[in-house]
Design a protein that fits this description.
The chain is an alpha/beta fold. Helix content is 38%, strand content 18%. It starts with a strand and ends with a helix.
Length: 382
């Protein structure tokens, strides 16, 4: 994009020419607390003055504290720390394979979804349901069966496959245009996994850390996965990933099976602890739920009579506006007006504003996005 940002504060970024932008993308769901949040800045500064790295040969106090916190908010038992979402998903895939081999399955296979996105390492791009991500990197990693998203019957059709060990799914597909499944979809997947002794692996890299109005999107369904992966918003921009699992699943991983040089380092863990403490103290999860409802209702009201708008969908601060024709040009038009968002799947405007978004900023997003979309659709009609 033809812009370079020099600094930011809250939900506002400033470029090198001094122009301000309302950030409705939050670094692609990373900066949940906005930019330059004082609690995160303080945690990073203090930790940098004490210790950056010792390696995982030794105990790391803040890593242990962060693991305890993540187990507490997830309801699961053990954590492996990495440096990115792709690495967290790699750990989940390796856990599933170890789990399968422990059951004497020679070719452990994971059910994954069409149009999914799990990362760009060889295993995670193989799990991803997007040919653009995979093209040119063949041969892909084997051990995945792909089925349509939000289609329980297609998962049931694999019950006879004795190599299946897990189902890996995003609670809401972000990269393919904010695809929200039926409200009982995850519950039905949980039941199928229980009945067939499969693991339920939830990729919450984009949905986690309060974005949907719960710490994790699965908490809307009253279930627990066997494995959940986190990254993006966990440390508000400091690279970190986490693979969290229940004891049954985590116990298959033994010392030496997996590791990470930088994973769970003191700096990243200090930032993540500050993020969790801030989300808790400022009640940002309920705020995300309320602001998300306000945004969706406002956008629906403004765009209800606009021909060319297919659907406005989302959960919490994860919102998609589905248009009838490709609209990538709107990203530059919005940039020119001082607003940041992305377009996914060519025709879906994706809004991922920070959890600290004010009502006034939400109103600005509603007004600017509605005007951009209305003008775009009118041009198409003309």
């Amino acid at each position: 994009m033809p812009v370079t940002f020099s600094h930011g504060k809250g939900a506002v970024l400033t470029d090198t020419n001094g122009k301000e932008y309302l950030d409705a993308l939050a670094g692609i769901a990373v900066c949940g607390l906005g930019h330059a949040h004082p609690a995160v800045t303080r945690a990073i500064t203090e930790q940098a003055g004490q210790l950056l790295h010792t390696s995982n040969l030794y105990q790391i106090e803040k890593q242990q504290r962060l693991a305890d916190k993540l187990c507490e908010i997830s309801g699961l038992d053990r954590v492996f720390f990495s440096n990115s979402g792709a690495e967290a998903n790699e750990a989940a895939i390796k856990l599933a394979r170890l789990y399968g081999h422990q059951k004497k399955i020679d070719t452990p296979t994971i059910i994954v979804m069409e149009n999914s996105f799990h990362g760009r390492t060889m295993a995670t791009l193989s799990a991803t349901g997007n040919r653009k991500v995979q093209a040119g990197f063949e041969p892909l990693v084997q051990g995945f069966v792909r089925v349509p998203f939000n289609n329980i019957k297609s998962v049931e059709n694999n019950i006879g496959n004795k190599n299946i060990v897990a189902v890996m799914v995003e609670p809401i597909q972000g990269e393919s245009g904010i695809q929200v499944p039926d409200t009982d979809y995850l519950n039905k997947l949980r039941t199928l996994c229980d009945e067939n002794d499969w693991l339920l692996i939830l990729d919450e890299i984009q949905t986690g850390m309060g974005r949907t109005g719960q710490w994790f999107a699965y908490q809307h369904n009253g279930i627990k996965p066997d494995v959940v992966t986190l990254a993006k918003a966990l440390a508000n921009g400091v690279p970190i990933g986490a693979c969290i699992a229940n004891e049954k699943t985590a116990s298959v991983m033994k010392p030496g099976n997996h590791g990470s040089t930088f994973g769970g380092n003191p700096l990243a863990c200090a930032a993540a602890l500050a993020v969790i403490a801030t989300i808790t103290s400022e009640q940002l999860i309920s705020k995300a739920a309320d602001t998300g409802t306000y945004l969706i209702d406002g956008l629906k009201h403004k765009l209800q009579s606009v021909s060319g708008v297919r659907e406005i969908r989302g959960l919490g601060l994860m919102i998609g506006i589905d248009l009838e024709r490709p609209c990538s040009e709107l990203v530059l038009q919005a940039l020119d007006q001082g607003l940041l968002f992305s377009v996914q799947a060519e025709h879906v405007i994706r809004l991922l504003p920070p959890l600290i978004l004010s009502k006034e900023q939400a109103d600005t997003i509603i007004e600017q996005v509605s005007q951009l979309v209305s003008n775009w659709c009118q041009q198409a009609a003309a």
